[in-house]
Every structure is written in C-alpha cells, then in structure tokens.
Design goal:
With 599 residues, the protein is mainly beta. The protein has six helices and 31 strands. Helix content is 10%, strand content 27%. Strands 6, 9, 14, 16 and 19 form a five-stranded mixed β-sheet that branches. Strands 10-20-21-22 form a four-stranded antiparallel β-sheet, with helices on one face.
Length: 599
C-alpha cells in the first residue's frame, strides 16, 4: 500500500503494512506553486550543531520483573534475548544442581596437586545467556590453611533481595538450570560475578525461592515450602557491574592503602614464604596497586605446563619458582602471593577452568571499589562446550589491561585452539571487541551511561534507566545525518540446514508519524504450518520505498508472543530521510527455526 505524500514530510509506506508518512511540518497552502515536498528538519534543540540523542532504549521487554515473574526478553546491544523456556526436562548432559556427583559441583575446599603438565580435553556446561564461557563462577575460595588447602573462610549465608528492576549500565544475563530442591536446603548455583544481582526469577514447578551468598560470594538457592521437593527448572534474570569483566585499575593508590580488614590472614608459615616470593619478584606494599597487579599478572601468565624439576616438597614454592602448571596452579600461587602482599584475592573455578578475582578500593577514578576478574590462562588439548547452542556470547566492555606474554597469547580461555560446541559465528562474536559509547569505549547493555552502584545515581531499583540523552559537545555524541542505512539482513544457506522454515509478516503500522515520535507496528511470526511461533526475536526496519529493502535502518526490536504475534512501539529515527519509506521485519531464527525477512 502506497503512502500518501504530504508536504515537508518523510513519506513511509509498508509493503505488507499500512501506509505511513512521517511528518516534519504542516503542508503548505494548495494555492502556492511548486511546493517543497521534502524538507530536512532538525531534531528538538535545533539551535545546536549536534543533535540531542533520544533516551536510551529499555533494557527489558514484556512483563515487569519480580519474584515469580520474568520479563519476556532482555536487550543485549542490538540483540534481543528471549526468556529461556521453563522446561523441567534436562538438555543434553545438563547437570542437576544439588544432586551431586558431577564435575560442576561446588568445591568448598581444594588442595593443589603436582600434576603440572597440560590438561586433556576440558568439558564446560553453559547455563548463562549471553554465554560467559569458560568463566562461570561455581566455586570461590578465599581462605588458606597451613597445608595450602583453599577453603571458604566464612560459610554463613546472607539472603539476597530480588530487585525487580534493572540497574543502569549493568550487563544482564539469563540463567537457566535444573536444581533439586528439598525444603530448607541451600543448593549451590553458579553466578557470573561476585556482586551479581537477581532481578527476577521463575521456577517450574512453581514455588517460592530464597537466594543467598556466603562470605566468598558463592550463590545458593532454597525453598522453605514443604511441597518443594524434586527437580525444578530455575530461570532467572541476573545483572552485574561490567567493571568486573573489564578491569579498570585504581590510579594513585598504593597496596598499603587497601584496608587490612579486607584481607584474610594467612598462616604464619605461608605468609613468611610468600614474603620471600615478594622480595624475589620485586613486590612491595608501598608500590602502586596498578604496578603490583601488572607485575603479578605478567609473571603468572608466563607459567607453562611442565613437570616440576627437583621438587622441594613445598608445592607453592615449586610452582612459583619454576613457573610450572596450568590454570589451577597459576590461580593458587597467585592468590597466596597477592593476599600476602595485602591485595584481597580469591581462587575461583568451575569444571573446566580456574582464575582469580581481586578486590581494589577503586575501579576507575572516583568510582567505588569492588572485585575484578583476572584470567591467568591455562593449557589444555581442547575445550568442549555443552548447552551453548544458539546463545549469544558475552563481550567485556573494555580490553584486558594486563600483559600478555607468549605463554598466554593462544589458549582456550581466549577461545583459541580446539574448541567444540560453539559455532564459528559464536567464537567470532566472542573475539570481536565491543564498540560504541560507554566506559572504556564499550557499549553498555541497552543504552548509554555509567554503571550505577548502590546509593549512586542510576543505582539499584531504577527501572529501565538505560542511559541519558547526550547534549551538545558530549563525548561520543555524533551528528545524525539523514541517509541510507545498512540494509536488510542476508541469509547464509548454512543457517537454513536442519531447521524449520519460518515466515514473518508486518500486518499493520500507523499511517503518519513525526521523526522522533513513536510508531506502532504489528505482525506475526509463523512456522511452515502457519502456526504462530512464540519467543522469536523480531527486528524492525524502515527502508526507502520501492528499493527492495536497500538502505534499511533498524528502528526497533521485540519478541513474538505465545500466538506468534508481535507488537512494538518504536521511535522514528532522526536520521531517516524525508521520503517515502517501507516497513520491514526480520527474525534471525534460533537453533530450531530458520531466519526470515518480510516481503
């Protein structure tokens, strides 16, 4: 259906939708000769050279998050990630948390071994989307005994509040796992970060849940209801401060500035031996925290998988002086050395990998302190990833700031080498730097803005606060010039093999809209049998009319409902040209359904 032309307007028509004209200003009187049919207009605030950006897009779509109710989907940059299906049946090789007897169980203590050669194939089971492979936090240990046993220093639990609202600038993750519940029993579950927040959850069969953490920020879930017995599917929405994943080190602070109460004391014998290591490595409490961490990371990343020659009988000293071992040996020796210096450090692990997290009093100038994830690498012949099909890949918002010696440069933690269970596209996505506005030049999840902490502006409990519009001259603010967009997505034949055909149609759209104002679009996603497909990611576009989608702009995202129908209210961008346009929709499909584009 063609759009009617209106003077000084952007005309927009949908091939499968109602006609739409985006108005810039009223039409001139009919008596005037040769009226100007298309006139470029600036956004509100036209007196400035640069345009003011529209408010950030909402981080969550669908239902309001709460205990017992998840939103329909979350936004991950330009992707929409639908809520995982609450199917109580296990996926292939999916463990049942709380049952025990599998490699992904929580370790409440561990002692270092002397098997310092390379590992064989490591197996990792992903429960998060976006995937954080291989950094799912299952066991965090923060205490050291005289025999070098690592343990949880404080096993008492603190209950967590289900926040019910996203935090501005935080990164969000779906968690989906099976848990075996027994009334009053705390079941260990994995996390993405030590300061992870639970925004909402659903569980099937339904029951009331309580989340908690111990002193090392290991996470647990339980139900106190008498009927809560057996295997349940837990689907929860979590979020975390992005500065945990992309470390920002403090400037101008020394190791000695870290409060001593933050550091868990080591046994005397271990402390004295570690102090010898400090002298050997050139570490001092008076040195800047940044310099100490750079030195430590450079040294422990240079470990190699090899046998210990002429062992002294002290596993810490042998590992340290010979730089021998894989991920668990590096993390163990780093944790002792850093804690003895006065830098709070934990040994963190899962079934496939071990690394460390350190606490610093600042994460960037003037920013509150917190934990940083530091990977030290590893050595294995291969990494096999399970339960990751179709998942997005998490990308930190900044580059790793630490030295990368040759021994670290190519290993499975960077998804290099023999990796199975991830597609080539997933690996490429994980290895592609995240770009756009935000801290460290990285895009925030769903919009601009710095992460908010507890008690900070934009902190916990701000619903949908995904960034503020940028004003004139703000960093990263670019002038929006009307012109063509990147076009509609093309389909790789490899994406179609073994999947069910789909169709997507736009069924209606408004007839007129101003640039900068909202436009309602409706449509449906269906399978080959014309039945609606629920939970499908839908991308909406405006494209110049009669150009077969060439120059299309992405204008919004949504998710199909239970009957396959979708509806979205999107903003007409200021960069859309003042000309007739058409409405298109596409769906990227998933692990069972093919992608498709509307006609």
């Amino acid at each position: 259906m063609r759009a009617r032309w209106i003077a000084a307007s952007i005309g927009i028509a949908g091939t499968a939708a109602a006609a739409l004209t985006a108005l810039a200003q009223p039409a001139p009187p009919a008596a005037q000769p040769a009226p100007v049919l298309h006139e470029d207009v600036r956004s509100p605030g036209a007196g400035s050279r640069r345009q003011r950006r529209p408010p950030g897009r909402p981080a969550l779509l669908g239902e309001t998050p709460a205990a017992g109710q998840n939103p329909t989907a979350i936004r991950d940059d330009e992707k929409i990630l639908p809520e995982p299906e609450a199917n109580p049946l296990p996926a292939s090789e999916e463990p049942i948390h709380g049952r025990g007897g599998f490699g992904a169980d929580r370790r409440t203590e561990t002692i270092p071994d002397d098997q310092t050669g390379g590992d064989d194939t490591l197996r990792y089971i992903e429960v998060f989307n976006p995937s954080v492979v291989p950094f799912k936090r299952m066991s965090a240990l923060d205490a050291v005994r005289a025999d070098y046993t690592l343990a949880i220093g404080d096993s008492s639990l603190t209950e967590l509040r289900v926040t019910g609202a996203p935090t501005r600038g935080f990164d969000r993750f779906w968690g989906s796992m099976l848990v075996e519940l027994r009334p009053g029993d705390d079941v260990p579950i994995p996390s993405v970060a030590p300061e992870m927040r639970i925004v909402s959850y659903e569980v099937e069969p339904r029951t009331q849940l309580t989340f908690s953490v111990d002193g090392a920020d290991n996470f647990y879930v339980r139900s106190d209801e008498a009927s809560a017995r057996g295997v349940h599917r837990l689907v929860f929405l979590a979020e975390a401060d992005p500065r945990y994943f992309a470390p920002v080190m403090p400037r101008g602070l020394r190791v000695s500035d870290i409060p001593g109460t933050r550091v868990r004391p080591l046994p005397d014998r271990v402390q004295k031996l570690a102090q010898q290591a400090h002298r050997w490595l050139g570490l001092r409490r008076e040195m800047p925290i940044e310099d100490a961490l750079l030195l430590l990371v450079a040294y422990f990343r240079a470990f190699e998988p090899k046998e210990i020659r002429n062992p002294t009988g002290d596993i810490y000293w042998d590992l340290l002086t010979q730089q021998a071992g894989v991920c668990r040996h590096r993390a163990f020796a780093f944790a002792i050395t850093a804690n003895a210096l006065g830098i709070p450090t934990r040994f963190v692990s899962n079934e496939a990998h071990a690394w460390v997290e350190v606490w610093v009093p600042e994460r960037g100038a003037g920013r509150p302190g917190g934990w940083l994830r530091i990977d030290l690498g590893g050595a294995a012949s291969a990494l096999e990833v399970k339960n990751a099909a179709g998942k997005s890949m998490y990308r930190p918002r900044g580059e790793d700031p630490f030295p990368k010696p040759a021994e670290y440069a190519e290993n499975y933690t960077r998804l290099e080498g023999d990796i199975s269970g991830l597609s080539a596209g997933q690996i490429a996505e994980a290895q592609t730097p995240r770009t756009g506005p935000g801290g460290g030049g990285q895009s925030t999840a769903g919009g601009e803005g710095e992460p908010g902490g507890e008690g900070e502006p934009g902190g916990e409990g701000e619903p949908g606060g995904e960034g503020e519009p940028g004003g004139e001259g703000e960093a990263g603010d670019e002038e929006d010039t009307p012109g063509p967009g990147p076009g509609l997505p093309s389909t790789d034949p490899a994406q179609l093999r073994g999947k069910r055909p789909t169709t997507i149609r736009v069924t209606s759209a408004g007839s007129t809209a101003f640039r900068g104002e909202t436009l309602a679009i409706e449509g449906v996603v269906a399978g080959e049998d014309e039945r609606g497909l629920p939970g499908q990611h839908v991308v909406l576009y405006l494209a110049p009319a009669r150009q077969d989608g060439e120059g299309a702009h992405v204008i919004g995202h949504t998710v199909s409902e239970a009957d396959g129908r979708f509806r979205a209210e999107v903003m007409v961008p200021f960069e859309i040209e003042l000309r007739e346009q058409e409405v298109f929709a596409s769906t990227p499909g998933d692990d069972r359904n093919q992608p498709s584009v509307s006609e």
